[in-house]
Each structure stands twice: as structure tokens, then as C-alpha cells.
Fold this sequence. Notes:
The chain is mainly α. It starts with a helix and ends with a helix. It is built from 28 helices and five strands. Helix 8 runs antiparallel to helix 9. 52% of the residues lie in helices and 4% in strands.
Amino acid sequence: MRAVEVEGGGGGGGGGGGGGGGxxxxxxxxxxxxxxxxSSRAKxxxxxxxxxxxxxxxxxxxxxxxxxxxxxxxxxRFEYVRDDDAIAAAAAxxxxxxxxxxxxxxxxxxxxxxxxDALLALSDVYxxxxxxxxxxxxxxxxxxxLEGGWHPHFAAAAAAGRARMSGAADLEYEDEDEPTPNPNxxxxxxxxxxxxxxxxxxCHRAALECSKxxxxxxxxxxxxxxxxxxxxxxxxGEEDWLLDFANEFKPNASLCTLPGVAFSVALARLGGxxxxxxxxxARGSGGGAKGGGGGGGGKGGRGASKLAxxxxxxxxxxxxxxxxxxxxxxxxxxxxxxxxxxxxxARWVKALTHPFFLDARTEVRSRSLEHLYDLFAERHxxxxxxxxxxxxxxxxxxxxxxxxDDMKRPIIDGLCPLDFASLRDETFPASDANAFSHLSxxxxxxxxxxxxxxxxxxxxxxxxxxxxxxxxxxxxxxxxVRGILDGIQLDDVERAVAAAGGRxxxxxxxxxxxxxxxxxxxxxxxxxxxxxxxxxxRVVDFFRTMLNPTAVGNEGGRLxxxxxxxxxxxxxxxxxxxxxxxxxxxx
Length: 587
């Protein structure tokens, strides 16, 4: 996390032990009353607080608790919780989201300036609108609010690698039929978006440190950091760390079965990773002279021309393993690079039109692996775009098609191409289900969308998992009528009364004075925050249909259209009478 402070500009240290034996996080940091505001200029580990930010306080009711210890390694487990202060803020956010109007988010943040869900959503809105600076600052405020809820022992435990958190979107409990939204999910989502934003701004080491933190907290990697952490490491010259990480992250499973890591490990060896470091130590160079240290190849490094013969052979073999294990990754990568060198060079044409690569994508029977190829091509293509990298990649492709001419002939490590295909099929068995469908290639791209997507793809309009659309298509929780009732304003009532032909017709249409009173009682209950089943569906549906005359089978719209037709007929009749009786018109 220290690199985040240095490169990303974050201020101060990480904050260690903190207060005594309490289980809840320090909200706010330091001593004093829990709800007392403090200056947003306070030091932070993840981001740099700005003087223009409002004072931090517990308006969102966010805190962190220690929930025990991991049974495998004894690490301390933490979990975000929302206390009673979060009820009003969560209800206000639901109402703002139900309007589908980003302006409502801004209005909400005036009242709850540190509401993490609203800050995350507004950051997405800014990003799609092309306002990158505003998006980044809003995301930093979200991380600042999340850090403000840290448990007193969390920072020290995370720095020592002894903290664990679940980053899954939902949590499943044995005594509950439906999954429960994970309160930790916003932290991992914000950290992932922050890392992608950092690398777009050239802060690759800071992005790497954010990824390290997330992967240490939850090795199951629900957010997809494993699809980009190798990219960050290569961009900031941490080849040695990447090679160690690939070998040690999961002792019982090799990360090199992932296409991105497999190709990045080969590139790390070409750039002077561990083999180069050992060779320099053997020569007694000390690693610090003019030739450059062992780990510095992300932006050029020692280069292929300066590698010893044994080191170059080791890098060539690593690339061949990656190509034999994931042949479909090469066409995806070259398509994304879209370089003239791959289309005008006869050797590239020979390699890419060989059945081993040409038919590789159609032979993949795992939808998850296909998606990983797309993510790899989108995130890593910049690493392979330089001419030197493309020439090396071509040499490996030519070796691969030579080996593929005899699929049963041992070619490397005593394995034949057929063995690599069997390993791939075993690691990614045939399935139409995509285990990585929640990861979008756009999230790994340096190109930012400039147009807000429509419908359910809108990040602000998208309901949370398990939340379906309510009447009128408004995302709302089951049996939650507060959000939709609050969206019906008094001017809507006046319009509905006018459309129905007056108060009498309006009341009759609703079912009498009792039904109208039921509606206003429902509004009062919603304002008080009362929960309960939805007994007001017909009232709400009436308003929604009355004010939407284009809906099919819409009784309210039909009534309004009929009244408009009658009014038009009356106006036409009056005009005819005026033409027949000029004296009446003068009068």
C-alpha cells in the first residue's frame, strides 16, 4: 500500500493498531464521539483527501467489524456493517435510483456526502459522460469513506497479510433461502475501478499495490484482479515479483493456466526476470550498475538482445508453453493489436492460417475460457504491440505450428501438444456457463466509454442482484413501496385528477373516498419509514398507467386519450357554431 501513497499521491501512513478492544471500526478516525465530524484533510492510506471535500462523518452508518479468524491460516476476518444510521440513507438512495435521474444522486450526496453506493454510481455516470477528472475524484471520495470505516486493527493486519474479507457480490447462509448482498462488495468494486483508473493515468505501481491488497484479502478474486495484476507488474518493471507470484499464489493450482498469466510470465522472462537476476548475481555485478538491475524490464528492461543464451532459451520455452496451452489466445491478441505487420508479413499469414491457430477458437468448449481470451486481448495487447515483442511472438508461433504437425511428439518438458490440450480441457471443462460473465472487457480497457448505455446496462439504473423491477419498471426490493410511492408527486396527482375529468370521476375511478384516503395514508407510512407488504398496488398502478398513455392495454392512458378526443370534438363544435353565428363570435 505504500506505493499508493508515493506514486498515487496519497498522504501519510497506513494507520496501525488504533483503539482498544472494540470490534467496530473507527468512525471517525481518532478519538472522540463516533458521529463527530473530522476534517477531510486527515491522512489516508488509499487516496489523497482534498481540502474541498466536506468533513467526514458517519451519516452513511458504515463501519467494519472483526468477525473471527480464518480456519485455514488463522488470519483475522473483517466485514463491513451498516448500523441504524444507514437506514435513512439506504432508503434515500433507493428512491434516487428509482428515478433513473443522475441529478437525484447529486441531490442525495448533498444530504449524505459519504454514501458509498451513491458515490460509486455517480463515478460511473461521470465516466460515461467523459468527465474523467470528476469520476476519479468521486471514486476517491468513495474509497476515503470506506477507509474511514476500517476496524482499528485492519490496516496493520492487511499490511502484514493477515487480514481476510469476502469480496463476492452475494453471501449465502444456510438458514436463508436467498443470497444476501455482501456489504464488502462496494470496497472491492471501488478498489478495482480505482486500479484501472490509476493505470490509465500511468500510475501502474499504485494499481499493482491495489491489486495486491485485494488479492490478499480474498484469494478467490471475485472482481477479476488476476486478469490484470500481471499487466500492472510488467508495466512497472516488477518481473521478478510476477514470476514469484505466479509460482506461489496458489500452491495447489498454477496461475499459468490462465492465458494472461501464461503469456505475461514468458514476457517477464524475456524482460530479465528471475533468470537474469540470478545470472547477474553469479557474475557479481551487484545488480546496480549501468547495465540495469534484474527486475527492470517492464518499459524496456534489459531487452532480448542482452539476454544470455540460457536465459533467452528459457523465455522462448515459456512462450511456447503458453501458445501450446492457449492457441486461441494468439488470434484474439493479433486481432486486437490490428497491426499491419501481422497482415502483410507472409510468416504471420502462415502462422495464423495454420489449422492449429485458425481452428483454435472453434475447438474451445468452455465459454469461460473464451471470455478469458477476450479479457486477455483487451488488457494485454499494449504489451505485445512493440515491434520487438511481435517478432518474438512470431518466432514462438512458428515453433508452435511446427510442433502441432505431430501432436504426439514430445516437444518441451517431455510433453506433446496433445498433452497441453488435455491440460486445458481438464482445467476448463466443456460448459456453456460463463463463470466470468460478471467481468466486462470494457472494464479492462484503457478506452473509456463516452455514452451512457441504455436499459439495464446503465450502471446507475441496474438493480442489485435479487432486486427485480417493480411497477412501471422501477427497480425496487420485494414488498418495498416506499421508493415508488415517494416518486409520485402532488403535481402528478393533479394531472391524474384533470385527466380523469375532475375530482368526482377521479375518486370514483379509484374506488371511492376510502381508496383515496388509503393512498394518502400509504404516503404518510412511507414517509415514516414503515415497512410491510404492498397493499397499495392498485393505487400505484393507477397513477403509473394514468400518466403513461402509450402503454398497451393501459386503462388510464385510454381514459386520458378518450378525454382528449372529447375535448377536441367540443372545440371543433364550438368553432363550427362560431362560424355559423358571427354575432355570437363578436359577443
